[in-house]
Sequence to fold (284 residues):
Amino acid sequence: MIGTPPLLGRDRTPFATGLAYYVDIDKAYPNLDARILVRVATSLLPEPVLVVVDTAAPWCIFEPELGKILRRTLTPIQGRVTLSTRLGLLHGALYRVPLSFSADEGESLDLEATVFLSPDWTGPNFIGYQGLLQRIRFAVDPDANLFYFGQI
Amino acid sequence: MKTGAARRLDPEPYDAPTPETFLEEIRRIIESGTLQGAREVAAQGLVHFPDHAELQRLHYELRPFEVRVNPSFKLSDPRPSYEWLKKNAKAFRGKWVGLDKGELVAAADTLEEVLQALQDRDPVDTLVHHIH
Fold:
């Protein structure tokens, strides 16, 4: 590890090894409770994208237009998966997708997410708990719009 | 002994497991919103049916998920693009936008149009977002 970790745990060992600024666009998402949008990148997409951090969502979900690009190179873990969402029941497939959090301070993190792709999804991109968040340490500082992350 | 109690003590009829027994259990676990235990079921299935292609594939696909620190991966400071979004999101609702260090490069109805407009830009500096 280079330098001081951005956040220490209770036992003074590194809790988070990287932090990233996030954006909360309240006016753009009036119907959403979760408004923490962080930037993620994947080698499967040409540009970084924003995703909503949502601990209540089981899987990560990507918008259908992004899903079209991801599906070109991925095979599903499981086809025909049903997901219950605030927009109703959705049918899609689950994929294993490599993602990266870029650290604005500290060290970036590469990880694999479980992503649900459905042509019928009309909401934004999400990163969910079972699909990603439970595999890392994370913390949020709403005062400074900072998302802390680290390897477990 | 009452018949109800006798029925409870009767052993369950034994059905020999088939590959579909394990595949169905994996499907059930995934449908419940988790992957926990699904790989173990695939492993159990492979004990009985070591050559079953779908069980082999699922056992591989459900392997532990990797997380690792990557000190060499860095994108540029996102705050200029975040500021742009905060100021302008309302005016671009329903559009895909492509930003480069806080500068709007493209706004379009489709992702493809935005990606085309960004193709000569360094992805370290860019951000793509669909404003709902």
